[in-house]
Design goal:
The protein has 782 residues and is of the alpha+beta class. It contains 19 helices and 29 strands. The strands form seven sheets. The chain has an eight-stranded mixed beta sheet, with helices on both faces. The longest helix has 28 residues, at 532-559. The radius of gyration is 27 Å and the shape is globular.
């Protein structure tokens, strides 16, 4: 609506969203003044805890002599499973995950007891002194072994559409094979930590680094044998989460709270990096067996895939992860006849959990691997084969726009987005240049690949798609916001602040955000599934809107005109020709007894999911993207380098382009690490040997390409998301598929692109050398 009362100010052009703003804690980060859980001033009498860990992957505990632990310097108490006053469980869905092992250990690193001492160092030293006798049992360590033993944490799942077998029989070509894609350690900079402080009347305050304060509240309450209202969980910020602090922060919070309750003093439990990596779960590794039928142009006719993940010893979030993998096997491609199976293998390893992408990357990479093989078999450019299999363009009707699980795609922009990236990255010219380089270079080989992304946004479990918020406007016109999301560096607080500022028409400097706290907003969902800004932004907008409407009604009573015609912009309220500073109107509204605070709530509409048939509309919308990567590989050493990466990502109408571009860049490098350098390795005794920076290699600054071009695709969400923006947390992690397939392309050139390199992920130097050798051997044999 045009505001005729403000001719000198174009309020329609004023906006607090859709503009780049610095992260709300950026200055504090740079100055080292941002408080993380371990930075909070310790209460007088604080003790420190450490965990005693299992040394066997699968065994009965015959005896546990903790006398040497109790006698160790500074030790105040030692607690075992028998000391837990409530329920000995921290499983998020199925209650199969004990806080402390009780008679049975199921992986190396499983916590057996808690030591409480006068210092962090004394607690850690004492925890090493426990003497445990084991009666060892057979251990299953790999997903393949779990499948062979029919060892699963949950029943296997299947999604089928059409008749894949009949499609195979009429397909002129088939490709069949296996693929293994490894897991990934979250490697957050701030490790797991919880600080439990007893309160009066059986209360417990838990300050912890977690993506899911409400779940921590529930777990702690159950462990203490109390109600949820006895427990308050607070998290101001995390030093990274990436899914590793969604459910897995529960063990640490519960152990700290139980210790604090039993000894009646505050207890801090801060994990050493080695212990953190030994105890906590990671991204699930997947093993695939696939068979795909296709025609002479490369169009998929029918597809079968059987996926099994390494779930670990308990269910944790493996079921939802597998579900998302199943629902992302299609990625950007229409699959008419499919048979998709997934199983969560029970293994005697850490219980794997959420990691950025939550099964989506593991599902999508399988179809990309298949399309890469089809293109090579037909002697075609892989991009052409990918484009041939895309879902139909928007407006083409439903024939090629229905997913295997039955959701109609109404927002497909993958054609336009890929066309734009293909042109801007000069893909065709660079493809020709790479081929020319390889013709004259016997040792160094280049590769290039363009891969797309289609990623569904919403929690798999429908009821989790809800959020709440509180907004307070104080008499001086300043604004305080609280919501149920948690800040882990991704900028959700900044975006929510922008949303509130925009709704009330004020400068961002007026808005302050407070720590996530279960006593302020109750029953929150995890900050996960890329829904943080979507859900909490909408809830905060709802709260701010209620306040704005009350202020508008007050302004209309004061100055005349209709409340719906009152405008809020640029720290000013425009009402019937009058221009009132925002803080002045607020002060007057308070004196007139106008409510200046409000709660807000949002639940994502239109979602449905039937886990039995694996059909429904599980996603609110899809985020799209694509990337082109060019690499060079040394075929004598397996070393490689990413020369250039071009990424184009669909963030809808971005709330904050600077933050979103940063998220794309970070996700790209993190995903590249998963697929190339980050190798998890267990020995035959079931001990994770890659449990420190010395043995587990995340990407460094030197691994980033010197030429890194990231842009946001001009788009507007067709769904009524917050200001028509789209999520940006998880989907960009799939963009570095292009790096993996560029490496495979370079290896393939060794044999003139006649042989499909047998390359698993991560594509370490050793894996690259093995693939080069296989291609050379097949070329000689051919």
């Amino acid at each position: 609506m045009n505001d005729m009362s403000a001719p000198d100010l174009n309020t329609a052009a004023w906006s607090a969203v859709g503009v780049s703003r610095a992260h709300e804690s950026a200055r504090l980060h740079v100055l080292g003044q941002a408080d993380y859980t371990d930075d909070i001033d310790e209460v007088r009498g604080t003790l420190h805890a450490a965990l005693g860990l299992s040394a066997r992957p699968h065994a009965k505990i015959v005896s546990m002599d903790l006398a040497p632990v109790r006698a160790s310097r500074g030790v105040v108490a030692v607690y075992t499973a028998q000391d837990i006053p409530g329920t000995n469980d921290c499983g998020p869905i199925i209650h199969d995950d004990p806080i402390l092992a009780d008679g049975l250990v199921q992986y190396v690193g499983q916590p057996l007891f808690v030591v409480v001492a006068d210092s962090h160092d004394n607690a850690r030293r004492a925890a090493k002194k426990g003497v445990v006798a084991y009666d060892e049992l057979p251990a299953i360590l790999t997903p393949q072994a779990a499948r062979a033993a029919q060892s699963y944490v949950l029943p296997p799942m299947r999604l089928a559409r059409g008749d894949a077998q009949a499609a195979f029989e009429r397909a002129p070509h088939r490709v069949k094979g296996e693929l293994h894609v490894g897991g990934q350690e979250q490697f957050y900079l701030e490790g797991q930590i919880a600080y439990a402080i007893p309160q009066e009347n059986d209360g417990m305050l838990v300050l912890c680094s977690t993506q899911h304060p409400s779940e921590m509240q529930h777990v702690v309450a159950h462990a203490l044998g109390l109600h949820s209202h006895h427990v308050v969980v607070e998290c101001r910020r995390m030093g990274g989460g990436f899914g590793g602090k969604e459910s897995q922060s529960a063990l640490w919070a519960a152990a700290a709270a139980v210790s604090a309750r039993l000894c009646g003093r505050p207890v801090k439990l801060r994990a050493d990096r080695d212990d953190d990596m030994l105890v906590t779960g990671k991204r699930h590794c997947f093993h695939y067996e696939y068979e795909v039928g296709y025609d002479g142009e490369g169009r998929i006719v029918g597809a079968k895939v059987d996926m099994v993940s390494r779930a670990g010893f308990s269910a944790d979030l493996s079921g939802p992860v597998a579900t998302r993998a199943v629902c992302h096997f299609d990625n950007s491609y229409y699959l008419a006849d499919v048979d998709i199976r997934a199983a969560c293998g029970k293994t005697n390893t850490q219980s794997n959990t959420a990691f950025r992408g939550f099964g989506g990357p593991q599902g999508a990479i399988a179809i990309e691997y298949v399309l890469d093989e089809i293109a090579r078999n037909l002697g075609r450019d892989a991009l052409d084969v990918r484009k041939l299999n895309f879902y139909g363009r928007s407006g083409d009707g439903m024939e090629r726009n229905v997913t295997p699980y039955g959701q109609v795609i109404v927002d497909n922009v993958i054609h336009e987005l890929v066309d734009e990236l293909e042109a801007s990255s000069e893909y065709r010219a660079r493809r020709a240049a790479v081929d020319a380089f390889n013709e004259s270079s016997p040792v160094l080989k280049k590769g290039v690949a363009l891969t797309p992304v289609k990623f569904g946004i919403a929690f798999n479990v429908t009821h989790l798609n809800q959020a709440g918020a509180l907004v307070h406007v104080y008499v001086d016109g300043s604004i305080l916001v609280n919501h149920g999301g948690t800040e882990m560096g991704q900028g959700v607080n900044t975006k929510v602040m922008q949303v509130v500022a925009h709704e009330l028409g004020v400068d961002l400097s007026r808005v302050r955000i407070t720590a996530t706290n279960t006593s302020k907003v109750a029953n929150t969902s995890a900050t996960a599934a890329s829904t943080g800004a979507d859900l909490n932004g909408k809830a905060a907008q709802d709260a701010a809107r209620r306040i704005r409407e009350r202020l508008a009604a007050f302004a209309a009573r004061q100055h005349g005109g209709a409340a719906e015609d009152v405008r809020f912009a640029a720290d000013t309220v425009f009402a019937n020709g009058a221009e009132i500073p925002f803080d002045e109107l607020v002060a007057k509204a308070y004196l007139a007894r106008t409510q200046l605070w409000s709660d807000g709530y949002y639940a994502t509409p239109g979602l449905s999911w039937d886990p039995k048939t694996m059909t429904g509309r599980p996603f609110s919308y899809f985020a799209y993207g694509a990337a082109v990567s060019e690499v060079i590989v040394d075929t004598l050493t397996g070393e490689w380098k990413l020369l250039r990466a071009d990424a184009l990502y669909d963030a809808g109408k971005s709330l904050n382009p600077a933050i979103d571009i940063g998220q794309v860049e970070g996700a790209f490098i993190q995903g590249m690490g998963w697929l190339t350098t980050e190798e998890l390795w267990w020995d035959q005794r079931g001990t994770l040997k890659t449990h420190a920076p010395s043995t587990y290699k995340i990407p460094a600054v030197s691994d980033c390409p010197e030429d890194f071009r990231v842009r946001l695709f001009e788009n507007r969400n067709v769904e009524d998301s917050i200001h028509r923006s789209k999520a940006v947390g998880e989907p960009p992690l799939l963009l570095p598929f292009s790096v993996f397939f560029a490496i495979r392309d370079a290896i393939s050139s060794v044999g003139g692109h006649k042989v499909n390199p047998p390359l698993n992920a991560p594509a370490t130097c050793e894996a690259i050398l093995n693939a080069v050798a296989a291609v050379e051997a097949a070329t000689r044999a051919g």
